[in-house]
Automatic annotation (TrEMBL):
Protein name, per record: Adenosylmethionine-8-amino-7-oxononanoate aminotransferase
MF annotations from Gene Ontology: adenosylmethionine-8-amino-7-oxononanoate transaminase activity
InterPro entries noted in UniProt: Aminotrans_3, BioA, PyrdxlP-dep_Trfase, PyrdxlP-dep_Trfase_major, PyrdxlP-dep_Trfase_small
Domain of life the protein comes from: Bacteria
Family: Belongs to the class-III pyridoxal-phosphate-dependent aminotransferase family. BioA subfamily.
Reactions mediated catalytically: (8S)-8-amino-7-oxononanoate + S-adenosyl-L-methionine = S-adenosyl-4-methylsulfanyl-2-oxobutanoate + (7R,8S)-7,8-diammoniononanoate
Cofactor requirement: pyridoxal 5'-phosphate
Native source species: Pricia mediterranea
Residues flagged as site, Participates in the substrate recognition with KAPA and in a stacking interaction with the adenine ring of SAM: L24
Length: 430
């Protein structure tokens, strides 16, 4: 049996409109979707053959390049051996090997891995671990702490801890109990610690969830590592579990394997997804310390973590992650990461004094600049910028008045220069 090709000559963009509902889209106000036909390395190709440099690595996933042959081969071998099996009662080699390899590069206190499918579920599980950890110990701690302007995903629990979701209106009354603190700055950290210390005396906070060093959806806002370290230290003194959401920052983007590697105090729980599987298949992991795991380890069934997703530890996804880790640790990829860091630094030196640039910032391969013009998150000027980049064959996705680059590690020097050129011409346009 095969599907009959539609007889019309309508483009994919036209056919798309009939039955598809896209994320983050108000369809009544949105132009047609662009159909992407294929991708390779740092490039996307649309259905008409026009190429675009993927300047945001398709939401920070395919860091080793699209359709990477090494990863494709490993995954297709795995797919022919074992496609899918229940992970409750069974185990398999890709998951076991991935656990061994990932634990080697995670912060040293991480011991156990719990699988799921996407960044939001990794966060849901992190939240549930933090809440149930205290519950299992007979302590009543039901409030969570999070940073202002954080983003942790779009499922209900993850939405509750995010403050950024601008369109949360219909759900706000249903959210779990969350209190917020500002991200640390050198000027504000003393006040933050004082207020926090007073608040912690009530012993009712279960966990603190944070994007370490870089808040992605907040437009790549960056904060002080030393200040974050002091916050984590204080929270740990008060037995608050620290949950690092490294869904965006993980796997080399900050110049180290994980953003938490820049900070002395290590998280109790870490959420991973996005680049975990090198952009090939959806998967997520929530890792934790032995101490967290031990709070669930009991002769009492009800103390277990009774959470599951059907595709938990999907074998091909595990093999994509294993291949990705091998690439991340290769000398070639580490050299690429350093090359991009140095390249962005040079570009930064050049644009930071441009009259249209308010400020610039960089953390590892993440580079962002704020325009000194007023813009709405999804307004007209934002669309003009987006179209300018796409016309130039560059896929960048400005957030508010921020233009940022988070390109795959395999982006060549020439491709980087093309991205910079299109940003230069955008600056002269706004
Ligand atoms: C993208 C993201 C999420 C959500 O991940 P999804 O896979 O989109 O559900 C959570 N936290 C951070 C920091 C993210 O960047």
């Amino acid at each position: 049996m095969s599907f009959t090709e539609p007889k019309t000559l309508e483009s994919l963009s036209q056919r798309d409109k009939k039955h598809l509902w896209h994320p983050l889209t108000q369809h009544k106000l949105h132009p047609d979707m662009l159909a992407i036909a294929k991708a390779k390395g740092a490039l996307l190709y649309d259905e008409h053959g026009k190429e675009y440099i993927d300047g945001i690595a398709s939401w920070y996933t395919c860091m080793y390049g699209h359709c990477n042959d090494f990863i494709l081969n490993k995954v297709s071998e795995q797919m022919q051996r074992l496609d899918q099996v229940v992970f409750s009662g069974f185990t398999h080699e890709p998951a076991v090997r991935l656990s061994e390899e990932l634990i080697k590069i995670l912060p040293a206190n991480q011991e156990k891995l719990f699988f799921s499918d996407n960044g939001s579920t990794a966060v849901e599980i992190g939240i549930k671990m933090a809440l149930q950890y205290h519950y299992n110990k007979g302590e009543k701690r039901r409030t969570l702490l999070a940073f202002e302007n954080g983003f942790h995903g779009d499922t209900l629990g993850a939405m509750s801890v995010s403050s950024l979701s601008v369109y949360n209106g219909p759900f706000e009354d249903l959210f779990i109990d969350v209190e917020r603190i500002p991200v640390p700055t050198v000027e504000s950290i003393a006040d933050t610690l004082k207020t926090l210390d007073a608040r912690l005396q009530r012993n009712d906070i279960a966990g603190f969830i944070y994007e370490p060093l870089v808040q992605g959806a907040a437009a790549m806002k960056m904060h002080d590592a030393d200040g974050l370290d002091q916050i984590l230290k204080l929270l740990k003194q008060h037995k608050v579990l620290c949950v690092a959401d490294e869904v965006m920052t993980g796997f080399g983007k900050t110049g180290k394997n994980f953003a938490s590697d820049h900070i002395a105090t290590k998280p109790d729980i870490i959420c991973l997804s996005k680049a975990l599987t090198a952009g090939l298949l959806p998967m997520a992991i929530t890792s934790c310390t032995q101490e967290v795991y031990d709070a669930f380890y009991s002769n009492d069934m009800t103390k277990g973590l009774f959470h599951a997703h059907t595709y938990t530890a999907n074998p091909p996804a595990c093999s994509a992650a294993l291949a990705g880790l091998e690439l991340l640790r290769s000398e070639e990829m580490q050299t690429n990461i350093q090359r991009i860091i140095a390249s962005h630094r040079q570009f930064d030196d050049e644009v930071k004094d441009h009259p249209k640039v308010e400020s610039t910032r960089q953390c590892g391969v993440i580079f962002a600049l704020d325009l000194n013009v007023k813009m709405e998150r999804y307004g007209n000027l934002r669309d003009t910028l987006l179209n300018h980049f796409m016309d130039n064959g560059i896929f960048l996705r400005p957030l508010g008045n921020t233009i940022y680059i988070l390109a795959p590690y395999v982006t060549s020097d020439r491709q980087l220069q093309k991205i910079y050129d299109s940003i230069r011409s955008a600056l002269n346009m706004v």
